[in-house]
Amino acid sequence: MVSLQGNKVKLRALEKEDLDLLYELENNPSVWEISGTVTPYSRDVLKLYLENAHRDIYDVKQLRLVICTLENEAIGLIDLFDFDPRNKRAGVGILIKEEANRNKGLGRESLEILCKYAFKTLQMRQLYANILEDNQRSLHLFEKLGFVLVGTKNDWIYTEGSFKNELLFQKIFK
């Protein structure tokens, strides 16, 4: 079994105490363009989501984990989505909540841990990420961890009156 803890962070399952974190992130319009959300979520809806967060990835085709410091401070979320065990692939997304926690290697270590888990425990052959072309931090992070640009989705995301390209990155485990 792969450990979900590194030298700086650990990944853990969602808990009911994460309601405030989810509420803040899901209702932050600045992340809506990457999440595909266009409306806020109520606390009641998010409570229902948390009540069902224990469901198996093979059932719901998604796994959302909380990124925590080793001192148990929740600092973000990392997801596997579109989980496809037949074809051994899944999408991956990551969000570090506060600017102060970015560019410190926390996202990198979180993504490394998730990649090892996906490959060794879930038997995935590949992961992919959809990244907006102007998101330099994410582009750098995923490239650093061996994800390769395999395509461009032109004019894919409409936001603030204009279209943005979304880049498709893929990592194949061999």
Which key features would you list for this structure?
7 strands, 174 residues, 6 helices, 7-stranded mixed beta sheet, alpha+beta, Aminopeptidase, globular, GNAT_dom
What do these coordinates show?
This protein is α+β, with helices and mostly antiparallel strands. It has a single domain (9-172), classed as Gcn5-related N-acetyltransferase (GNAT) (Aminopeptidase, 3-Layer(aba) Sandwich), CATH 3.40.630. Helix content is 30%, strand content 35%. The protein is built from 6 helices and 7 strands. Strands 1-2-3-4-5-7-6 form a 7-stranded mixed beta sheet. A hairpin with a 4-residue loop joins β2 (63-69) and β3 (74-84). α1 crosses α3. The radius of gyration is 16 Å and the shape is globular. The model has no long low-confidence stretch (mean pLDDT 92).
Structure summary:
Residues 9-170 form the N-acetyltransferase domain. The protein is α+β, with helices and mostly antiparallel strands and 174 residues long.
Topology:
Layout: E1 9-13, H1 19-26, H2 29-35, H3 43-51, H4 57-60, E2 63-69, E3 74-84, E4 89-96, H5 106-121, E5 126-132, H6 136-144, E6 148-159, E7 162-172
Parallel strand pairs: 4-5
Antiparallel strand pairs: 1-2, 2-3, 3-4, 5-7, 6-7
Helix pairs in contact: 1-3
Protein name: GNAT family N-acetyltransferase
InterPro entries: Acyl_CoA_acyltransferase, GNAT_dom
Pfam families: Acetyltransf_3
